[in-house]
Amino acid sequence: MASRCWRWWGWSAWPRTRPPPAGSTPSFRHHLSTQEKTPQICVVGSGPAGFYTAQHLLKQHPQAHVDIYEKQPVPFGLVRFGVAPDHPEVKNVINTFTQTAHSGRCAFWGNVEVGRDVTVPELREAYHAVVLSYGAEDHRALEIPGEELPGVCSARAFVGWYNGLPENRELEPDLSCDTAVILGQGNVALDVARILLTPPEHLEALLLCQRTDITKAALGVLRQSRVKTVWLVGRRGPLQVAFTIKELREMIQLPGARPILDPADFLGLQDKIKEVPRPRKRLTELLLRTATEKPGPEEAARWASASRAWGLRFFRSPQQVLPSPDGRRAAGVRLAVTRLEGVGEATRAVPTGDMEDLPCGLVLSSVGYKSRPVDPSVPFDSKLGVIPNVEGRVMDVPGLYCSGWVKRGPTGVIATTMTDSFLTGQMLLQDLKAGLLPSGPRPGYAAIQALLSSRGVRPVSFSDWEKLDAEEVARGQGTGKPREKLVDPQEMLRLLGH
Ligand code: FAD
Ligand code: NAP
Q1: Phi and psi for 257 in degrees, rounded to 5?
Q2: What is the rounded distance in angstroms from the CA atom of residue 424 to the CA atom of residue 466?
Q3: Fewer CB within 10 Å, N- or C-terminus of the chain?
Q4: What backbone phi and psi angles, to 5 degrees, belong to 358?
Q5: Is the preceding peptide bond at 15 cis, omega within 30 degrees of 0?
Q6: Alpha carbon of 48 to ligand 1 centroid (Å)
Q7: Measured in whole angstroms, how far is the alpha carbon of residue 243 from the centre of its chain?
Q8: Which amino acid residue places its CA nearest to atom 26 of ligand 1?
Q9: Which of 137, 235, 405 to probe ligand 2 with, by most ligand atoms within 8 A of CB?
Q10: What is the CB-side half-sphere exposure of residue 175 using CA atoms within 13 A?
């Protein structure tokens, strides 16, 4: 499979290989010019990483052709299936991705799962370079007893459910309890808490002004919800929360809900925040004010009449999900009380030996997402949950790159993902220019199409997606929503006549 060009520069030298020196041999220059003409590149995954990588490659190389393969029949990854349904402005990036997909040198092939329908070696054979941008599709398990009980659910599945992710569409969480506990204090935890606590009439108002694409099924269950209190539990303290200020402010201002913060958790913090970086300082000041200062008259009135509440529990590490007396579902969480050791980023929570039980009827674990290995031929660091790489070049596999969450782990917003995807694109183009990618023409999609067809896989093109998009928008019109998402892949394929 290796081309002459590969052998010349040696597999083992990757990715530390330097570009070939000026004045290389004529045969090398010949390879360089052929492969530079129309590089066929494929990207796996159509979330922000996939689309931003494609955008960079198309913009910076006037001949490059990019095929994007996506396992779902629909594009955009977590922008569609993760970003909260009451944050429509965040989804505007879809317009940029759509422009990229409309480029004559870009194609989208949905309904193709790499690793199942086509292998990475097959893609590498068909393309000059392959970029893995398939995100982080699993949730991190807490690995504590009771985690499998009914009434326990990952935040990832809960988010997938309200956002219409096909595999979670039938989740139907039981919201008949009074108290929910969310384990973790990141932005996903805040998203979930906000969706759980937003009053039904506020959701209706969002509907009326076309500001939410939450699924019909989720809206129905949330309307009937009896959850009144949501605790967000962190193993460390207020200075270590993982959520950000904008999302906290939104929580503080949430209609019909009041915050519960224990001023004792904030003792001595005023002095410590002087030394922390500005964004963390502003976030902690907001927490501190909310916990310790008297609210203004408007806020005081709002909180006094609130029927729902959310609270932050600090210095508590989950040890066990407690079963109900009949053992059939979750009834609480046992938490180890912790104290902090170490300074700065290295601050760790260590148990003091004390335990505390927090009763609840619903446990949502929100301690992060996790990438999966995609193909046995691709190196994978299962401890860190990433593909080992140097600036996006997959270690020891020439011509293979990665970007986004599978490259750097499941943290960072869309803008961070954009920057790192541009960097991967840049590395790929540098290697192309340096003659480090296979020489000679590559068949690209033509070869993959033949394989897929022989395996009975019917890819969904971008224009197919636009038909589904139009159908979703039409279905939403009757209800005042920007769209009513299709949640069943079989129905999507039927609508396309596949
Ligand atoms: P993804 O967006 O997950 O895209 C990966 C794509 O690869 C998916 O479409 C997936 O279906 C596809 N795929 C997976 N496996 C395969 C396979 N084998 N074959 C083919 N395709 C495959 N950031 C913000 O800036 N603002 C927000 O409001 C915000 N909200 C968020 C809410 C949640 C719940 C989460 C989890 C994250 C949020 N983020 C937000 C962060 C943002 O979503 C990420 O930074 C970004 O989506 C990561 O991009 P990615 O392309 O690496 O992964
Ligand atoms: P995250 O920001 O990494 O937060 C994970 C949380 O889980 C942290 O509080 C962490 O605490 C805790 N945790 C991890 N392991 C734990 C364990 N074993 N026991 C107890 N607690 C544990 O992850 P996320 O919330 O899933 O968010 C992922 C990324 O998406 C983030 O970058 C986030 O900003 C982004 N996002 C952005 C938005 C937005 O912009 N509105 C919305 C959603 C998500 P420790 O710090 O102690 O490890």
Answers
A1: -135, 145
A2: 28
A3: N
A4: -115, 105
A5: yes
A6: 7
A7: 15
A8: 413
A9: 235
A10: 22
423's enclosing H/E stretch is: helix 414-433
H or E element: which one contains 230?
A: strand 229-233
Strand, helix or coil for residue 69: strand
Ligand 1 site, residue 86, Cβ cutoff 6 A:
no
Picking from 175, 343, 373, the residue whose alpha carbon sits closest to that of residue 272 is: 343
Place of tokens 């003792």: 267
Cα three-residue angle 196-406-465, rounded to 5 degrees: 70
The burial class, CB within 10 Å (0-12 / 13-18 / 19+), for 120 is buried
Alpha-carbon span 138 to 368, nearest angstrom? 9
State how far the alpha carbon of 191 is from the alpha carbons of 159, 231, 364, in Å.
8, 13, 12
What end-to-end distance do the CA atoms of the chain give, in Å?
34
Phi and psi based region of residue 359 (left: phi greater than 0; alpha: psi -120 to 50; beta: remaining): beta
* Atom 8, ligand 1: residue with shortest CA distance: 77
Residue 68 tokens read as 């994007």
For residues 263 and 281, what is the distance between their CA atoms, to the nearest angstrom? 17
| Shortest-distance ligand to the CA of residue 161 | 1
pLDDT of amino acid 10? 29
Q: In the predicted model, what is the mean pLDDT of residues 399-426? A: 98
Q: Report which protein residue has its CA nearest ligand 1's atom 9.
A: 77
pLDDT band for position 9 (cuts 50, 70, 90): very low
Q: Using the predicted structure, report yes or no on whether residue 429 has a pLDDT greater than 80.
A: yes
- Ligand 1 within 6 A of 115 CB? yes
> Is the distance from the beta carbon of residue 48 to the nearest atom of ligand 1 less than 6 Å?
yes
Q: Give the number of the atom of ligand 2 that is nearest the alpha carbon of residue 411.
A: 32
Pairing of strands 400-402, 129-132: parallel
Residue having the nearest C-alpha atom to atom 14 of ligand 1: 134
- Would you give the distance in Å from CA 462 to the centre of its chain? 22
Residue 206 banded pLDDT, cuts 50, 70, 90: confident
Nearest to 53 by CA among 391, 452, 465: 391
207 lines ligand 1 (CB under 6 A): no
Q: Is the pLDDT of residue 154 over 70?
A: yes
Task: Give 181's DSSP letter.
Answer: E
Q: Are strands 229-233 and 308-313 parallel, antiparallel or unpaired?
A: parallel
Q: CA-to-CA distance for 267 and 251, rounded, in angstroms?
A: 22
User: In this predicted structure, which of 42-51, 253-262, 321-330, 474-483 has the lowest mean pLDDT?
Assistant: 474-483
Rg for the chain, CA atoms, rounded: 25
Angstrom distance (rounded) from CA 173 to CA 227:
12
Tell me if 409 CB under 6 Å of ligand 1.
no
Distance (angstroms) between ligand 2 centre and the Cα of 240 equals 11
Q: How far apart (Å, rounded) are the C-alpha atoms in residues 67 and 80?
A: 20
The verdict on pTM exceeding 0.70 is yes
Cα(66) to ligand 2 centroid in Å equals: 32
